[in-house]
């Protein structure tokens, strides 16, 4: 059973009846779900991830205006829920609630992920917030949202505004060209294999960013990126990048060809999305072509690397 399924069952079978019986008056102002940190919120949980922070649990999202007495009563009721469910034990919870589960103010949750309580991000926020934080603000599943507040905020944060996406795409395309098409071969020619491998790693990181941007999906924390990349259907890209970063540099020509193949594929995808006039593998030219597609003058005229 996946973590989200376990949490939904725990809420529906155990939590929901208690909330309906003991908190009928406040129930219309609550939202219930599971979101934030933890592999289960991404759907990435497996047997290995169950060795810590894996439990039958859910979040009771409450409005910022909820009075402290009611909030405390909800926290106490949550703490009294069964300590085991379907063979899985719950984690110990502090008397005043937990950080990942239990009673959480809606504003507190989004502020912890984005720095804003209402999801209204500034241009600077969109340019600088870690992408995995935005992913954590919008992942998981909301089982129900009576007031609709948390759903509306999650919709605001669901993905980058178009111009921000293009700025990030342009920056990472440029870095792909610099690290992979230019610096890798130069480092090899100098015999500096350590620097060459760093160039490959930088290329792979930007190539992954580009792929997620193509698919209009937030990229998760680094340890889940290959798994998420395959989830996008990019298995071949994942295998190529894995070879680049995990093999030595005894066959540099092979690595250089793989880099060129990935760049050519990126050009084809850009052309397919109407972001360049024709498909090509010249990353620097493609980067500036994408940057020129940005509508907002301020964003377009920023340094091309300002969003990466």
In percent, how much strand structure appears in the residues? 5-15%
Shape annotation: elongated
Q: What is the alpha-carbon Rg in Å?
A: 23 Å
Distance between the termini: 37 Å
Q: What is the H/E string?
A: HEHEHEEEHHHEHHHHHHHH
Number of strand elements: 6
Question: What structural category arises from helix and sheet content?
Answer: alpha+beta
Largest sheet: 4 strands, mixed
What is the share of helical residues?
55-70%
Spans of at least 5 consecutive residues whose pLDDT stays below 50 are none
Q: Quickly count the helices.
A: 14
Mean pLDDT: 92
Side by side, the strands of the main sheet go 5-2-1-6
Architecture overview:
The protein is of the alpha+beta class and 308 residues long. It has 14 helices and six strands. It has helices at 3-22, 39-42, 68-79, 106-114, 123-128, 131-138, 149-156, 162-189, 193-215, 225-231, 235-246, 252-272, 283-291, 297-301, and strands at residues 31-34, 59-62, 84-85, 88-89, 102-105, 141-145. The strands form two sheets. It has a four-stranded mixed sheet with strand order 5-2-1-6, with helices on both faces. Strands 3-4 form a two-stranded antiparallel ribbon.
Provide a concise account of the structure shown.
By secondary structure, this protein is α+β, with helices and mostly antiparallel strands. The protein has helices at residues 3-22, 39-42, 68-79, 106-114, 123-128, 131-138, 149-156, 162-189, 193-215, 225-231, 235-246, 252-272, 283-291, 297-301; strands at residues 31-34, 59-62, 84-85, 88-89, 102-105, 141-145. The strands form two sheets. Strands 5-2-1-6 form a four-stranded mixed sheet, sandwiched between helices. It has a two-stranded antiparallel sheet with strand order 3-4.
